[in-house]
Design goal:
Length: 647
C-alpha cells in the first residue's frame, strides 16, 4: 500500500496574493497524457454480481427482432379474428366501449407483446420467466377490466360515452406504471436501507407545485381560446408536439415557472461567503490518462477558494500507474494544503470512497471523479450554500470536456436540459434526490448520519444523496458550479456507462423503497414515481417506434394513418422545442446545429435503457433481496450497541 501524507501551510496563510475573481472562464480542453488501459471504463462496479448480469448486445438486438415478429403475429391475429369477435372490433382488444370509432393505435396489443417479449428475454430460470409473464398479464388484464368496466358503468348509469381515446390513454399510463412496479417486486434488487425518513411533507412545497400547475393551465386555456388560429398553425407544423396547446403549453409554462423560482432560490442560497476547510476525495481506477488534469484543476480551484483544501486519492486495483502519477502531480501543486494517497488492492469505487471518508477529518467532503475537471470557481460557488445548516449536499453542472467530437456536443445538450434546467426546477420545491457523483460536496455529518456510501450496487451517488434528503437535509443543484467530465468516445464505453446509469434507477429505488409514498414526501410521492415512469417510457421507446412503423406501413388499411404533424411530433415535437429553448437560455447557440443529432441520440439512449432492464436478475422468491453493505451504518450500529451494553 502506498500511503503518503503531506501537509504544508496554506498559501493564503503565508501571505500569498489572493486569486483574482473568475469571469469568463474558458472551457478546459481534454489532454490525454498517458495511454489508456484497455477497457479502462470497466470495473466491478459496471455490473455488480449480486444484482446485475453482463449481457451481450445481441440480447437487446434479439429482443427488438422478436418483438417485431410477435407484433406482426398479434396484429395479424387481431385482424383475422375481429369480424368474429366483438373484443377486436375497435382495432384493439377492448372488452367494452360505447364509442363506435376505431382506435388509432392498438395500445393493449403493444403492452401484451412487450411484456411477453420481456419475460422471454429476462435473465432467470424458465419458472421465473413464466411467473414474470403471469404477473405482467394479470396486472394488464385487471387494469383493462377496471377501465372498460368504468366506461360501461358511465354508459349504463349516466348515459355518458367515454371516448375510446380516453380509455386507451388510461391503459397506456397504467401499462407504463405496471412495468417498473413488476420489476421492483420480482427482480433481485438491494433490500431496503432502513434509513429513517425524518423529512416530512411541507405544505409550501405542494403549494408551489399546485400554484405553478394552475397558472400553467390558465395560460394554456388563454392561448387556446384567445389565439386559437395561431395555436392551430403551431400544431399543424408539430411545434406543439402534435398535441393541443392545453397539453404542450401547460407542461412548458409549468417547468419554466419552477425553473425561474429554482434559479432565484440558488441566487439567494449562495449570497453569503463561506469557506471552511474541505477535503477533496478522488476515487481512481485506471485513470493515469486523465488524473493529471483532474489534480491540476483542483489546484487551480484551491487558488480561488478562501479556505484550505486537502486532497485524498483513493486508488483501487489499477493496472496502470495511477497512484504513482498522482503522487508526482500533487507534489508539484502549490495551492493545496496537503494530500494523502492510498493505493489498495480491494476493488470497488464505493469501497474506495468509504476508506477515503474514514481518513477525512474536515467537516466537508468534496467528491470528484478522476476523469473530472472542476472549474476554478466551482469550490467557491458550491461551498457558499453550506452557510445554511440545513444544506446536506451540493452538486453542479456536468459539462463535457472539449475535444471529444460530436458526442461531446450531444452530451452538452443533454446536460443543459437535465442539469441546467430541469434539476434547477426540481430544486424550487425540494424535489432533487440525486446529485451526480462526478463532483458533489457532502456535509460530512450528514453523510455519516445517512449511513455512508452503499457498496455492491449501481447508483451509490444518487443513493447517498437521497438518504441525506430523507433525514431532513436540503439538496442543492447549482449550475454556476461547473465541472467538465470525460465523454465516451466509443460505443462500447457509451453502452457500459448508460447501462450502468439506467440500471441504477432500480437499484436506488429498491434500496430506498420505503421512500415511495411515505409521509407525503414530495420526493417519494411525486418525483421518484415520475422518474420511474419516465424510465419505463424510455425503455419502451425503441419497441414503440418499431410497433408504430408496423401499424403505419403494414396495417394502414386497418388503422387510420396519423397526420404528418403527428409523425413529426413523435420524432421531434416537444423535446425539440425544449432543446431549442434551453440552449437559447444558456446562450450556447453553437449547439443549435447539433439538435437533430441529439434527437437521434435519444433513440440510442432508449436502446441502452432497454439493455439495462434486461440485465436485471430474476431468481427464486427466497433469493430476491440482496443486503447491500453500508459499512458506516453498520459501524455506527455496533458502536451504539457497545455504548448501550456498557451503560
Amino acid at each position: 500500500m502506498l500511503d503518503k501524507v503531506i501537509d504544508r501551510p496554506h498559501p493564503k496563510d503565508a501571505g500569498a496574493k489572493p486569486a483574482e475573481k473568475t469571469r469568463g472562464i474558458p472551457r478546459p480542453k481534454f489532454r490525454q497524457t498517458h495511454e489508456r488501459a484497455q477497457d479502462f471504463f470497466r470495473s466491478v462496479d459496471s455490473a455488480p454480481q449480486a444484482v446485475a448480469v453482463k449481457r451481450a448486445r445481441i440480447i437487446s438486438d434479439g429482443f427488438l427482432v422478436s418483438f417485431a415478429a410477435l407484433s406482426v403475429l398479434a396484429l395479424t391475429a387481431l385482424v383475422l379474428l375481429a369480424p368474429h369477435h366483438p373484443f377486436g372490433a375497435s382495432g384493439d382488444v377492448v372488452i367494452f366501449t360505447a364509442d363506435r370509432t376505431a382506435t388509432a393505435l392498438p395500445v393493449r396489443i403493444f403492452f401484451g407483446v412487450f411484456f411477453l417479449n420481456y419475460a422471454l428475454y429476462a435473465f432467470g430460470s424458465l419458472w421465473s420467466k413464466l411467473k414474470l409473464l403471469t404477473v405482467f398479464m394479470v396486472k394488464l388484464g385487471a387494469v383493462c377490466l377496471i377501465i372498460d368496466g368504468c366506461a360501461y358503468g358511465a354508459w349504463t348509469l349516466a348515459n355518458v360515452v367515454w371516448p375510446l381515446e380516453l380509455q386507451q390513454l388510461l391503459i397506456g399510463l397504467a401499462g407504463i406504471a405496471i412495468f417498473p412496479h413488476t420489476l421492483l417486486s420480482n427482480a433481485r434488487l438491494p433490500a431496503d436501507s432502513g434509513t429513517p425518513i425524518t423529512r416530512r411533507a411541507k405544505l409550501y412545497e405542494y403549494a408551489l407545485v399546485g400554484i405553478a400547475a394552475s397558472l400553467a393551465g390558465l395560460c394554456a386555456v388563454i392561448m387556446a381560446t384567445t389565439f386559437a388560429g395561431e395555436s392551430a398553425y403551431l400544431r399543424s407544423i408539430a411545434l406543439l408536439g402534435g398535441m393541443g396547446p392545453g397539453v404542450f403549453l401547460a407542461q412548458q409554462v409549468f417547468i419554466m415557472q419552477l425553473g425561474i423560482w429554482g434559479w432565484g432560490r440558488n441566487q439567494l442560497s449562495r449570497r453569503k461567503a463561506f469557506a471552511p476547510p474541505v477535503s477533496v476525495l478522488i476515487p481512481a481506477h485506471n485513470e493515469a490518462h486523465q488524473i493529471r488534469e483532474t489534480l491540476k484543476a483542483i489546484d487551480r480551484a484551491a487558488a480561488h477558494y478562501e479556505g484550505s483544501v486537502h486532497v485524498v486519492v483513493a486508488e483501487n486495483c489499477s493496472s496502470d500507474d495511477t497512484a504513482a502519477l498522482a503522487e508526482r502531480v500533487l507534489s508539484q501543486c502549490t495551492n493545496i494544503a496537503g494530500y494523502s494517497i492510498e493505493a489498495s488492492d480491494i476493488p470497488g469505487k464505493a469501497k474506495a470512497l468509504n476508506r477515503g471518508i474514514a481518513r477525512i477529518t474536515d467537516d466537508f467532503v468534496v467528491r470528484i471523479d478522476a476523469d473530472t475537471m472542476i472549474a476554478p470557481d466551482a469550490l467557491r460557488i458550491a461551498m457558499r450554500h453550506f452557510a445554511h445548516d440545513n444544506v446536506g449536499a451540493v452538486g453542479g453542472l456536468p459539462l463535457p470536456q472539449e475535444g471529444h467530437g460530436l458526442m461531446s456536443k450531444v452530451r452538452a445538450i443533454e446536460v443543459l436540459l437535465r442539469h441546467g434546467f430541469v434539476q434547477v426546477a426540481f430544486g424550487a420545491f425540494g424535489g432533487i434526490f440525486g446529485l451526480p457523483g462526478m463532483f458533489v460536496i457532502y456535509r460530512k455529518s450528514a453523510l455519516i448520519e445517512a449511513g455512508g456510501i452503499v457498496e455492491g450496487m449501481n447508483g451509490e451517488d444518487t443513493d447517498i444523496t437521497l438518504r441525506i434528503s430523507n433525514i431532513g437535509y436540503r439538496l442543492v443543484s447549482d449550475p454556476k458550479a461547473k465541472f467538465y467530465t470525460e465523454t465516451p468516445d466509443t460505443l462500447a464505453f457509451l453502452r457500459e456507462q448508460r447501462t450502468r446509469w439506467f440500471r441504477s434507477l432500480y437499484h436506488v429505488t429498491a434500496h430506498n423503497r420505503h421512500t415511495l409514498f411515505a409521509h407525503g414526501s414530495i420526493v417519494g410521492c411525486l418525483v421518484l414515481p415520475f422518474t420511474l415512469l419516465n424510465g419505463a417510457r424510455r425503455a419502451m421507446m425503441a419497441p414503440l417506434l418499431i410497433f408504430g412503423a408496423l401499424v403505419y406501413l403494414a396495417f394502414g388499411s386497418v388503422y387510420d394513418h396519423p397526420s404528418f404533424a403527428t409523425v413529426v411530433a413523435i420524432i421531434l415535437g416537444m423535446p425539440f422545442v425544449m432543446a431549442v429553448f434551453v440552449i437559447a437560455l444558456w446562450r450556447r447557440f453553437d449547439l443549435m446545429i447539433y439538435i437533430p443529432l441529439y434527437m437521434g441520440f435519444r433513440f440510442l439512449r432508449s436502446y441502452y435503457t432497454l439493455g439495462s432492464v434486461l440485465s436485471l436478475i430474476y431468481p427464486q422468491a427466497h433469493e430476491r433481496l440482496f443486503y447491500a453493505p453500508t459499512p458506516m451504518r453498520e459501524q455506527t450500529s455496533r458502536e451504539n450497541a457497545s455504548l448501550d451494553s456498557h451503560s
